[in-house]
Amino acid sequence: MRPDLHATRLALMAGASDARTEMEHSISAAGSPACNHVFTRSLFEEGRLAAAAARPAQPLAGLAFSVKDLFDLAGQPTPAGSAVLSHAPAAKADATAVARLRAAGGALIGRTNMTEFAFSGVGVNPHHGTPANHADPSTPRIPGGSSSGAAISVASGAAFIGLGSDTGGSIRIPAALNGIVGFKNTARLVPADGALPLSTTLDTVCAMTRSVRDAIVAHEILAARRVTPGTAPLAAYRLAVVKDLFLDDMEPAVAAAFERTLRTLRAAGARIDEIALPELAELRTLNSTGGFSAAESYAWHRLLLERSGAGYDPRVAQRILKGATMKAHEYIDLVHARRDWIARMESALAPFDALLSPTVPMVAPPIAEVAPGEERDDAFFRINALLLRNPSVVNMLDGCAISLPCHAEGELPVGLMLWHAALHDDAILAVALQAERELQAPH
């Protein structure tokens, strides 16, 4: 894997490389077979100009970043991975997140492919093709979604930061399946203006990177705040593994990687308790009337579906249309019930600095199992539900989480998720820095 942003910036500062050279490396990677179907629109010349104009002292110093197709770019339509918005009016301004990355010296190289309207964790797109997971060139596997192209742009070396969104795991799922880092910050910390919404309650603007230290840089830019991760040793943090829900139905490869990770962290001094969290059993009832994503996406899409419903991915349209049956009182009840659930969850999590779980319970399955086609719908929705199960808890909690690789060399990627309630971002990043260090150390 190409060096991370931190190492590359050090090389720029030392004069061992320059932004123009690094941009050509990024463009070469973006044009390689590994990036087939990754970019819905390439912006290589724009990237070259930005790299040439950047200064080494800037946080991004002319290095490449990519943007998920649901963010506004001035002068371009915002299709969000769809066909029905491909000729929508051009955006008048960049989304705030994009503007902040540019202002930090980032060089945009293109818009990345995604699940249509961000409504799936699998990453399949019938309009633009499905980018294949970067980890297994021998078997085309799902990239994870909905930020599918963003993940592969980072894993392939085309981009140092892949800007995306996370409503139920759309950053952490593809990060886990592609063996990179995905940080979902507390949603309120980064403005979502200029991003086409899925669920205004759950949407989070965030990014994928190749390391935790890069995730901190990206978050500081996007949130316009300084992270203070602290310097306490791993033994100073109280960690927990939740036995309920998160460990169900793990594939053997995930179970083995997760258990090995816990042994490694405990050997490094980590205190890890096993706890029950019965509040998780309430989620099925809370979302029984459809949940926020269905209701809020239907409110946004209802007129477009009436005009252009035949142009939607049928699997996406089916999920959006579930929101048509939610009654106003059911939505209001859900808002209040969630507030109460969050309060009780925060109380249960208060003794701990971070919770540990597998990001998802599986490694990436072959694309052939879930490719468009009614005969594969059952497999698609089963896999989608499993992929979303663990990370979506954090969105419902209004919390923060990071996924980092925990598999061994030669294994398909497995993600370790560290998570907590809202505004515990800096503690999560602090633990993640140390966990990453231990997991990468020779043993």
From TrEMBL:
Region (Disordered): 128-148
Record-linked Pfam families: Amidase (PF01425)
Cross-referenced Gene3D superfamilies: Amidase signature (AS) domain
SUPFAM superfamilies linked: Amidase signature (AS) enzymes (SSF75304)
Organism in which the protein naturally occurs: Variovorax defluvii
Protein name (Swiss-Prot/TrEMBL): Amidase
Domain Amidase: 52-429
